[in-house]
Give the backbone structure.
Amino acid sequence: MPPGLQAPDPDRRIRLPADRLRLIGAIALAVLLALAGVVGHRAGCDLRQEILHRAAAFPRFMLNVVQVLAFLSVIGVPVALAVERLVKRETVQVVDAVGAATVAYLAAFSVNVITSHFQDSAVAQAIGGATPMQVQLAVGVAVVTVLGFSRSQYRTLFLTTAALGGLAVVLLGQDSVTGVLLSALLGQIVATAWISVRGVLDTRPGIARILAELDHDGLRAHPGSVRVLEPGADGARRFRVAVTATAEEHHPRKQILDLSVLDQSQRAAYLASRLWQWIRLRGPVRRRSFFSLRRTVESEVLMAMAVEAAGIRTPRLRSARQIDQDTALLAYDHLDAPSLADLPDRAWTPALHHDVWALWQHLRSRQLAHRELTTDHLRLDPAGRLWLTDVGYGEITAEDVLCRLDGAELLVSIALRVGPGRATEEAVDALGPATVASLLPLMQPILFSEDTTKALRRHRAAGDRADLVGAIRDRIVALHPEADVQPVSLERVRPRTLLSVVGGAIAFYLLATQLTGFQTPKLNTWQAWGWVVGAAVASALTYVAAAFNLLGCVKERVPVGRTITAQVAAAFAGLVAPAAVGGLAVNTRFLQRAGIPVARAVTAVGVSQVIGFACYLVLLLLFSAFAGSHQKESGGLSAITPSATVTGVVIALAVIGLLIAAIPRLRAFVISRAKPLVTDIGPEFLQVARSPRKLAQAFGGAVGLPLAASFCLWASVNAVSGNDVNLAAMGVAYLVAKAVGSLVPTPGGIGGVEAVLTAGLTTAGVPSAVAATSVIVFRLLTWWLPVIPGWFAFTALQRRGAL
């Protein structure tokens, strides 16, 4: 037999990614089910007594009969499947099934032994009592998972009898619903773990079957010419083979084809990453993630035909066939030409750059998006003509944002080869500055293909730590200053946001525990109402201070009243954005509408934030020192001791400084982040410092804002408690809560701010009930109630064209 058509090894095993995904899913479901049972049991939601009460209406004899029949079926179906496999001489699968059944039996038996010894524990009671595991169900599920169902009748019989048997067990009071479900999941987990470790027999179509499919399309293969290539996208098997086109009877022609074999089981390996991308991105940039094998083949065929019809040189699709239910074949003409990524430096001439960008423009004009347009997928034949390859994951009738994303990724790919300066200049020469500038909003690595993202990582790891994407952006802005530098918002979720949400949920839980002692404020005295009025005035002064802080950082003359109105409007924007983000956006837009260029507006807002942060650190240290030096006499409320706060801040800053200095990568990261502050914000700050009036406005507003907010918190506590508290201690609590609120991605820092404020006031000696009530009063005055005038201010500024 020719070497290319040798029969595959019948005992060859492969480990399929789909099995690992099923194992992870089964484990996660079992853990969630167990946790739900424990939480429900502790919350008093155990339905077993109610079920037993309702089950009294069913004849017990009938339930026993159903249980016996279900037991026989749950065991009988796996036995029948095993016998059928033995008749077919598939003994290896039977051995695997017996091994998995043995492990499932031991696992279920062990769980029952453990729960019988701890039957009074909450966990044991939550999952079913002394013996929660149905051993026969776990064994049966393990066997059928390994063997599979050869007939649909077997599947229907097994699932129906397993469900009826589980229901009978529950109605008889022998187990809980949670215990029955966990028994089935235990068998599933054991079986999938077994086949994940041992692997399964490779039943995928071999090369002989693949070549036979080619023969149906009039392409007779030469078995001895088969070459195995590296796997392609989504784990596709790839081969190269010489064939003869027998359809041309008079002049048979020999040619070389590149084969791509798509296996549904291998494509499952990329499901997790595609799912994460689908969740993380939004809009048209999300790649198709959950296409079936048939739809994937159809999409690739349509794209290949569309590219060829557009007059773009691409390897011709010769055959597209479905081999079986889980396997498909695509055959393309082999192109013997190097990719642009492999060309020597001398080959990158201006003419080549022009041809590359002309190709992209042609794709864009025909609404074709490649989705991985890099130098690896562009080839140059000996005649100097460009070819486009690997078009299978592209899209036809694509939105313009996808075509521009192709251009952005192509520019980055060329820059990795020839450098950002030359790549940008050649693109501008070929396309014009306006077209290249339109790629700026999509110059985001998260939107690029996996290969480009890895290439950017390698570029940094190779010793060149410069941000290549940032260098391209700076070059484009230098060549076209009017370019829109704001990135298109296409990222739905960031990993840091997920961590922040988890932290915010924990903070909100802590707040909920603090609010258990909440009491309605008793504002029945003129003194209490006086404190409330004082707190409201202090809250209003925060907007005045924020306005003066912003005005001090702008050289141009901006109306004071309108600037204060913009700060009130920012309170409404904070309702739909994380803390501080809404205010930054409103201030930047307000300055831009006031006639200040975009770059200058962004820089001015940055200067105000830097000044505010510096004043924040100084006030935190001062408040901590004064809080410790002011101890109330007996009967009063104690203050936060200074030693822990001041010492903790100093130690934390020292540790952070040492880490930055000791770790080269962290040091380079900090320098890259701090460099824009020096190059952009530094000169603007020097301009502000030349005017004493502007300097006083900037620092006065930066200091006045936290002082007014601290006074508001102090007055809120006094209004609720009726006692005098340390103003410095309230300042420490507010400043710490403000820092936490800026990290929590909820609007206004909801959850995090309340939890930290309540904990800070409790630490200061304020009773927990008083602290929780005071925090609610403070948040009403500083965040919730200002939303109403903020909406009116926001709409008024929009009508006047000031926002």
